[in-house]
Amino acid sequence: MNMPSGRSNVSCVGSGGALLDGAVNRAGLVMVLLILFGCEPQLEGKDRFCPPDFNVIEDLFKPRCTQASCHAAGVHPAGGLDLQSSGVTARLIGVPATCGGVRVDPNDPDHSLLLEKVAGQPVCGGRMPLGGQPLTEGEVSCLREWMETVTATAGSSGPDGGQ
To answer: Which long-range contacts (CB under 8 A, 24 or more apart) does 37-44 make?
Structure first.
């Protein structure tokens, strides 16, 4: 069979057993192969974004919130919130924010000011990190999962909820 240049007769079985057959150009073949074999499987919940050893304080707060000295340990961290030195969860869980609301509401972590500040339109002040790139969907997901975990375990693993 005489085929035009750049095209080949391909017959293959894709996901779900669907038979692909016919003339497919090279770019199309590459696209199909990437779709079928190049994508990582979808994971559910925290594991979709956070590696098992992900530490919110070390892997999120310190690089994203303390680098510009905003929430670093020191004389005057922004909003009076130090996200760098030990005792971070004790400074977050159930603590009133300087502009109203609760930093991390132990009864309703999803309605905490911390989450509003990084994931939506905060009731006070600007979206965080101020002047920086917004947190990714994955970072927000990891933060939300961490908040749920530390509020559930607060008091059972010391004043810092294990962090």
So the answer is: none
CB 82 within 8 A of CB 73: yes
Q: What are phi and psi of 157, to 5 degrees?
A: -130, 35
- What residue type is assigned to position 128 of the chain? M
Closest listed residue to residue 103, CA positions, set 83, 75, 76: 83
Digit-coded pLDDT (tens) for 75-121:
789 989 999 999 999 999 999 998 888 999 999 988 899 999 999 88
Phi-psi map region of 94: left, alpha, beta (phi>0 left; psi -120 to 50 alpha): left
User: Rounded to two decimals, what is the model's pTM?
Assistant: 0.65
**Residue % of the chain over a pLDDT of 90:** 42
Please answer whether residues 39 and 47 qualify as being in contact, where contact means their C-beta atoms are separated by less than 8 angstroms. no
CA quadruple 95, 117, 82, 146: dihedral, nearest 10: 80
Query: Pairing relation of β-strands 7-13 and 19-25?
Result: antiparallel
Beta strands in the chain (DSSP E): 7-13, 19-25
DSSP 4: -
Q: Tell me phi and psi for residue 79, to 5 degrees.
A: 65, 15
